[in-house]
Design goal:
The protein has four helices and eight strands, in the order βααβββαβαβββ. The chain is α+β, with helices and mostly antiparallel strands. Keywords: Acyltransferase, Transferase.
Length: 145
């Protein structure tokens, strides 16, 4: 198994590596419209990018839309790198960031195809299935200690 490095980036950083991963996963693979993917919230988010050597293989972002509440969004891992633990590393980094921001809970919208990934990380479903960007999702929440 390869080693992956997780880099933390502020919204005003060069986000091109994060955007490349998101374009591959969401726009090209899952047919999400570019207008929906680039929602104008990247500058107010903290980002993490996973690298194998110098190649970006995964990314995710964290926002704190409400005091004490974090929202994890845009979790993406390039197809050849899935099932290698990269999603777990990205989530670990953003959950630590949420704790550092004194957040008591994390919210996210999970694609139903990967709902069990989040359940294994302690997230619980809080909604019925809904459509977001043409993909079935559920709202999930995790309380932080």
């Amino acid at each position: 198994m390869s080693e992956y490095d997780i880099h933390r980036l502020a919204g005003d950083s060069d986000l091109s590596d994060a955007f490349d991963v998101r374009r591959d996963v969401f726009v090209d693979e899952q047919n999400v419209s570019a207008d929906e993917e680039w929602d104008g919230r990247d500058e107010q988010s903290a980002h993490v990018v996973a690298y194998e050597d110098d190649y970006p293989v995964g990314t995710a972002r964290l926002r704190t839309p409400d005091n004490g509440v974090a929202k994890i969004e845009r979790v993406a891992v390039r197809k050849p790198y899935r099932e290698h633990g990269i999603g777990r590393l990205l989530m670990d980094a953003l959950e630590a960031d949420a704790r550092d921001r004194s957040c008591s809970q994390i919210l996210l919208h999970a694609q139903t195809a990967v709902e069990t990934f989040y359940e294994k990380r302690g997230y619980e479903r809080t909604s019925d299935v809904f459509d977001e960007a043409g993909i079935s999702h559920v709202k999930m929440r995790k309380r932080l200690d």
